[in-house]
């Protein structure tokens, strides 16, 4: 049973009531005015345990993946030097092709966490963070709407006390603690969000620790960019000067250990992006965190608004980790913990960059002119709206700006069968 929508709706409600947060965490769907959450699926659904095999269509020529990385620079030169009707690559950065021998198409398998597992995870987290002053009978709440809340109480206490019904819950997804000392939220078969209270105590705000994950410091960003470009820069954090690269390594190791799940074998963590914010007399880092599966990174993004076709949506990795002392002091978002089922077998050949670009040229409206500023090879998760089944495809991903309507656009061309997926979004 999948309950991510209920969880995220409860989280959003909790944030708006407790933190009065104005951040837009919903997404618009192209062709409709409906909105859905960036970070979760949209409703409870029982998905069949048997996955259909994805047919491999050979409509487009493919090249051997094992040797393509050495030939990739020629593909970049070809695309860069070609004049397209719908795309301009004059200022585009082309990411590297992962040095791997095969990729795959994967069905995302649903997992759950029992009430007992959820409670044990929370207790272990409290112990690991040396948080001892939390009365679980009072503070441990459930936000999944499995039991009605008490509207006469103030948040977060209008949510059901877990021990009023424990262990008679259908799932442990939804267990929550939110005090001035700490915050933790179970969701997505993992710890969905947490704060150990370090930021809250430094600010001395008197607010609940959930404030540490709702972007209160986004207005004080002084620098941001790719970690690889900023790794040698250092700022004064709570415990001294810390290089961005060193803090990113700490974040990477933290999530690779699991929270508590680690994902399938071959899953690692990448920390590609950082924002530096000021907080009092010191600075802090906000890192974007994403999955890498057998050398191929997942598409990642941020909270915001997007539009996509009515029949599918693109689920990107969205996890933010915050630090003011070089450690992971708070984070929010889904990444690890999802299991995959291989539904196509190892694919040793892919559509080349040139062919993928030709496919996209044909797909895009001829009156459109996109300034492409990034092309990368990544795994992309597509969710079918009608079934809520999620499938992971290895794709060529094009990110650019459409000057005609002022929106950014991201297009993913499946490198196995050439199918195109896309969404558009406003500048953040």
How would you summarize what this structure contains?
The protein has 8 helices and 27 strands.
How would you summarize the topology of this molecule?
Elements: H1 4-18, E1 26-28, E2 35-37, E3 63-64, H2 65-80, E4 87-88, E5 93-94, E6 106-109, H3 115-128, H4 136-139, E7 141-142, E8 160-161, E9 175-178, E10 183-187, E11 190-195, H5 198-203, E12 221-226, H6 227-230, E13 234-237, E14 240-243, H7 244-256, E15 267-279, E16 282-293, E17 296-297, E18 306-307, E19 312-315, E20 318-323, E21 330-334, E22 339-342, E23 349-350, H8 353-363, E24 370-384, E25 390-402, E26 407-414, E27 420-425
Parallel strand pairs: 4-24, 5-24
Antiparallel strand pairs: 1-2, 3-23, 6-22, 6-25, 7-8, 7-9, 9-10, 10-11, 11-21, 12-15, 13-14, 15-16, 16-17, 16-20, 18-27, 19-24, 20-21, 24-25, 25-26, 26-27
Can you characterise this structure?
The protein is an alpha+beta fold. The protein folds into two domains: 4-28 and 112-337, no CATH class; 47-109 and 342-425, Lipocalin, CATH 2.40.128. It has eight helices and 27 strands. The protein has helices at 4-18, 65-80, 115-128, 136-139, 198-203, 227-230, 244-256, 353-363; strands at 26-28, 35-37, 63-64, 87-88, 93-94, 106-109, 141-142, 160-161, 175-178, 183-187, 190-195, 221-226, 234-237, 240-243, 267-279, 282-293, 296-297, 306-307, 312-315, 318-323, 330-334, 339-342, 349-350, 370-384, 390-402, 407-414, 420-425. Strands 7, 8, 9, 10, 11, 12, 15, 16, 17, 20 and 21 form an eleven-stranded antiparallel sheet that branches. Strands 4, 5, 6, 18, 19, 22, 24, 25, 26 and 27 form a ten-stranded mixed sheet that branches. The chain starts with a helix and ends with a strand. Mean pLDDT is 85; it is low at 1-49.
